Structures are given as structure tokens and as C-alpha cells.
Amino acid sequence: NFSNPVKIKMREIALSIMNEDMRASNEIRIKYAAKNARIANYWKKWIGESRGLKKFNAVEKKKKLESDLINQAKNSMVYDFDSLFPKFHTLYIGLAKVGIPLDYYNEAVNVNTELLRFTSAFFVMEKECENKNLRKSRLDTLLGDIKASSKSFFKDYNKETDKKIFTALFQMFYEGVDNNIRMNSFKDVEENFFKKKNPSEKKVADFKKFADFIFEKSIFADEKKLTEFLGSFKRSQYKKIKNDPAFSFAMDLNDYFGKIILPQYDSINGALYNLYRVYIAGLKKLNSDSKKYYPDANGTLRVAYGKVQGSEPADGVTYNYYTSIDGIIEKADSLNDEFRISPTLRECFNKKDYGGYDKNGKLVVCFTASNHTTGGNSGSPVIDANGYLIGVNFDRTWESTMSDLMFDPDRCRNIVLDMGYVLFVMDKICGAKNLIEEMKIIR
Question: Is the pLDDT of residue 76 over 90?
Fold first, then answer.
């Protein structure tokens, strides 16, 4: 109800602006295709996570668990859960107060607004230049790195798209946080770039006016200006970076959240982690089968197991457990980079020449299973009961993203690239016979 809706809305706005500009221009579409996919990835995850938890009635299940534990503890006189959960409740209220502004900040500054993220790259250079004893060799290295990153940045940058995203997200950021959270930068925008109907009304920041100013005046939004500045840069000119409106705005935000908000957020999380330890210790005391509670497995090999299965994610909707090359042909679109296929693939499909990697004439591309997976599992090998490699894990269904918080084997499905299709592409599309010959293939 708090964090996910904010992040989903912020990315939804950014994506809608991006999509509109990408539809209007092939040049922008090419520049922003990868960025769009990156931003959409977690947007989809959070939507699926919230949707799955609601359908699974997760909150009520957790409430019942807490109630049962309190009653069980009272009856056994082993553990006092009665005082533990109010402490959790108080801490989570505090976490929301600083966590939600932090979500706004991360989405607006660190993820979706390119200009501010780009200016942050100059922070080290600005700080180093404040040192009068800065060596020329060090300055040359910094300049070389900055020039390279600037060239890369502007290659796929569209100023007007970023300006629209900046305007929309910061207006939402400004209106979404409490007055006591609004830092000096927001107050400056209120004072200098405001909208009001008459003098008696309170000034309200207008981020459209502010965006017009910042994108016009900042050298970081203009490739020609920045290239000229860096081309003749001397240490004494570092104040031009420091006083640039985009840089100073980004640094003020970074400073406020880094020094004021983040320490509070980390402190509350630290207190929560301590309560989690007490909570787990209590669970172990109340349940004789303590093997149910696994130790921290970070940095170790994780193995999940499940069955190859389809799913029924919604009423009246049933998904088969696999997709085939037929679906690739159905979706093929020569005008869309994401759905463009090679002539060789189409030729193999037309001839049904699958190199023997098909199953009864059907070349499987992906399949789903009830394995528990999480972020970072993409690329994990999937093996069968006999130890043979049968696929590569790479995704989850939308409803399955809730599995980071609550796993339901009847609903959660990971998505696996079938090894038959991998071998088909290596052999028939890429002609990598040498790799095929190195492997022991069980047909």
C-alpha cells in the first residue's frame, strides 16, 4: 500500500512519456529501447508482486500467523510474542515516513531522470579540483574518463524526452512528500518557480518552469557546450561545475537524502533486523521441528526444486507449461527490434528442419516450473532428476514475483529457456558445430 504504488506510478509516468516519444521518432526509439526495457523490468515486477500478494490474501495469512503465535506463546509460556509485534508495527510506521520519500528520490534522481544521474558523475572531479595540490596527471585522467562518459551519454540522449520526464516526476515527488521532508532545493523552486492565482495564495512549486530553466542553463544538458567546456578545462574552472543549476540541484538532493534521510532509514532497518532475530528465535522455541528455519545462505550455492507445470493465474485462464517456435513466428515483426527474426530461423521453421532437437515435431522454446527463484537467478542451470541440463532459468511470471515475500507452489512459476532450443540455435542458426561436438547430448 505504500512503497510499491509510488515506484509503480513513477515508472509508469516515465515509461508513458518515453513510449510516446519513441512512437513519434525512430531515432528516439533506437536510443531509448534498452532504457525502456530496463525501467520496465522492475515496474512489471512490482505490479506482479502486489497483484500476487493480494490474490493470495497474503496480509490476512500473516495476521493469522501472528495471532496464532501470540496465543501459542501465551499457552506455552515459552516466549512473549505479545510485546514483539507492537514493536514491529511502530518501526514500520517510522520506516514508511522516511522510506517513501527515499523511493521518490531514487526513482526521480537515480533511475529515471538522465540529466541528474549524469551530473552526479562529475562529483569526484569537482571535489578533486577543490584541492590546490591536484596533480596534472590526476586531472588528465579525470578529464579523460569524463569525456568518454559524456560521449557515451549523449549518443543515446534526447533532451526533450528527459525534460518531460524530469517535469512530471519532480512535480509528483514534490506533491507526494510531507512539508517537513521538502529540502532546501524544493523550497528554492517554490520561491523562484511557482504557480498561484493571486498574491494571497501560498506559493506552489511549478516544475515545468523549473525544468525550462535548468535544461536551458545547464551545460550538462547541451553536448556542444559541455564538449567545449571540457576541451579547454583548467582546475580553476571547477566552480562552473559546482554552480551549474543541474549539478547543484542534484548535489543538494544527494546531500539531503544521504545525510538526513538514509541514516534514519538504515537505523530503523537495523532495529528491525534485531527484532527479526528475536522473532526467529521465538519460532524455533515454539516449534520442535527447528529444521524448518534455514540459515542465511548468502554467498553459498542455492538449489531450488520443483516440477515442470503450467498455471492458472486468473479465473478462466489456463497456461500450458511450454511455448514453441510457432509463437516466435506468430510474434515476428520486421519493424520491431524486439521481434525481428533471422531469415535462417524462418527458413528452418518453414522446412520444419529443427536438427532433431524437436519433440515429436514441436520445437519447445520455453517452459515453466514451480521452482522458487529470485532476482539474480537469471542464467542459473536447470537440471532434471537425472542431473542432465534441460534449460536455463531467466524469468518469472508476473504473479510469481510475490515469491520474494511469500511462495505459493500452486501459483508461482519460473520461466526456463529449453536446452533443445539453445542447441537448435547453436547448431542450425549459428552453425557452431564445434560446440555441439564437445557436448554429450541425450536425445
Answer: no
Average pLDDT for residues 26-55, to the nearest whole number?
93
Q: Of the candidates 357, 310, 350, 355, which has an alpha carbon nearest to the alpha carbon of residue 329?
A: 350
How many H-runs (helices) and E-runs (strands) does the chain carry? 18, 9
pLDDT band of 293, cuts 50, 70, 90: low
Task: List, in sequence order, the alpha helices (H) in 156-300.
Answer: 159-176, 184-192, 207-217, 223-231, 238-242, 245-256, 262-286
Cβ atoms of residues 307 and 369 within 8 Å: yes
Angle subtended at Cα 208 by Cα 207 and Cα 211, rounded to the nearest 5 degrees: 80
- Given a contact cutoff of 8 angstroms between Cβ atoms, the answer to whether 372 and 425 are in contact is no
DSSP summary character for residue 411: T
- What is 127-150 written as a DSSP string? HHHT-TT--HHHHHHHHHHHHHHH
pTM, 2 dp: 0.84
Q: What is the mean pLDDT of residues 381-399?
A: 94
Q: How far apart are CA 275 and CA 283, in angstroms?
A: 12
Cα separation, 43 vs 39, in Å, equals 7
The pLDDT, as a whole number, for residue 289 is 64
Work out the pLDDT band at 77, boundaries 50, 70, 90. Answer: low
Strands of 322-324's sheet in order across: 322-324, 364-369, 414-418, 389-396, 381-383
Q: What is the DSSP letter of 110?
A: I
Q: Which letter does DSSP use for residue 179 in this model?
A: T
Q: Among residues 345, 426, 413, which one has the least CA distance to residue 382?
A: 413
